[in-house]
Amino acid sequence: MDRVSMGIAAFLAVVAAFATAAYAQKDKAQEGIEAYREALQDGNPAELYEATGEELWKKPAGPKNATLEACDLGLGAGVVKGAYARLPRYFADTDKVQDLESRLLTCMSTLQGIDTKPYVEAAFGTPPKEDMNALAAFVSGQSKDIPAAVTPTHPKEQAMYELGKRMFFYQGGPYDFACATCHGQEGMRIRMQELPYISSNKGAAAGWTSWPAYRVSSGQMWSMQWRLNDCFRQQRFPEPVYASDATVALSMYMAANALGATMKTPGIKR
Q1: pLDDT lower than 70: segments of the chain
Q2: Are 91 and 103 in contact (CB under 8 A)?
Q3: How far apart are CA 165 and CA 123, in angstroms?
Q4: pLDDT at 43
Q5: Which helix (H) or strand (E) holds 84?
């Protein structure tokens, strides 16, 4: 072997050693992250938001002084158990595909006579949008351990899924980003944060089934609408209108891709 070949062989050996060390470090770090997440599961503060949401669900409010207990989330008036696992879905009374939060706004308007515009326009983490986060925590908690069962069969559900798919891969903004930039392939990561591959069943399950979630770093309860809004912000896109078709479409794409995965809502995040 000549000197050039020996030098190349030595260089490749060093690269291989560094790669092996890097992967070992990555695996060790990932083990630490998983242990941290497991420890967080005990005493999830989301339970407090669930309790608040249940109070709001049963409390008479609005000009009609009515509760939300007659709200139809897709399984019949007042049926909450398992409803979140089947959302988003088509509702005949609105002739629209709705996710949980857009459907709650409909029920607040029709049953309680509440003007929902302030809820749509309020900033996340402030009243009255905090009530929506609590309601989302309560309703989603009633689907915990139930398999996700969103199957687009109605034409409008199918159209919403296709819209969500197109939005997922659409690139734009100052950095030409798309949802798929971070979530479009296996093994992606930002710093120590794994980025699920949303187009796969496993990845969609990781991205869908644990939201709404309590975020330890901010001490806040985040709904899926809030999570999506923050994704738009990070892409430097204009923030979407709360409970708009754009957000419902992306939720439909994720939820349908997560078919059969066990719901873990409400979750807890770092």
Answers
A1: 1-42, 191-192
A2: yes
A3: 27
A4: 75
A5: none
Query: What does the chain come to in residues?
Result: 270
Tokens of 133: 């986060």
Q: What are the catalytic residues?
A: 231
Count of Cβ atoms closer than 10 Å to residue 169 Cβ: 13
The 3 state secondary structure assigned to 127-165 is: CCHHHHHHHHHHHHHCCCCCECCCCCCCHHHHHHHHHHH
> What is the C-alpha R_g of the chain?
22
Q: Output the pTM of the full model.
A: 0.85
- pLDDT for the residue numbered 186: 83
The confidence score (pLDDT) of residue 21 equals 52
Residue 208: burial class (beta carbons within 10 Å; 0-12, 13-18, 19+)? buried
CB hemisphere CA count around 47 (13 angstroms)? 6
Cβ contact 109:98 at 8 Å: no
| 7 alpha-carbon distance from chain centroid | 50
Please state the domain extents for the chain: 1-40, 46-269
- Domain 46-269 has what CATH class? mainly alpha
15-55 confidence digits (pLDDT tens): 455 545 544 555 565 565 556 556 655 679 999 999 999 99
